Amino acid sequence: MQIVFEVARALSAIAFLFYGIACLISPRMDAEFERYGLARFRRLIGALECLGALGLVVGEFNRPVLVLAAAGLTLTMLMAIATRIRIGDSLVQTLPAIVLLVLNAFVLGFAVVNS
């Protein structure tokens, strides 16, 4: 189970670093955040996603940081799913947020139980 945890943690860190940087610099993400009705929060969300990814990496050496990062990213994805539902996105459009929610909830649960 430890290997599954490490793979989940690594995948989440990579995904959130990618999405976080995209939020900060991509014109495509600028348009997406307009569509979400959250344009003014795009840079904040991007920065928080990058910090969450960093927290997942630092969490290798500091369990409280890992728990905080995984909890924050889980909450972020819960809000992302709520936003996608609010604007009427399809299941296919919402699926990445659902997968990342499950992934981070697993990382969070494993980190808490194995502290």
Brief account:
This protein is mainly α and 115 residues long.
Based on secondary structure, the structural category is mainly alpha
- How large a portion of the residues is in β-strands, by DSSP E? under 5%
Overall pLDDT, averaged?
96
Q: Report the C-alpha radius of gyration, rounded.
A: 14 Å
Secondary-structure map with pairings?
Blueprint: H1 2-25, H2 27-36, H3 42-58, H4 63-86, H5 91-113
Helix pairs in contact: 1-2, 1-3, 1-5, 3-4, 4-5
Describe this structure in words.
The protein has 115 residues and is an all-alpha fold. It has one domain (2-113). It has five helices and no strands. The protein has helices at 2-25, 27-36, 42-58, 63-86, 91-113. Helix 1 packs across helix 5 (91-113). It is globular and about 40 Å long. The model has no long low-confidence stretch (mean pLDDT 96).
Keywords:
single chain; 115 residues; mainly alpha; 5 helices; globular
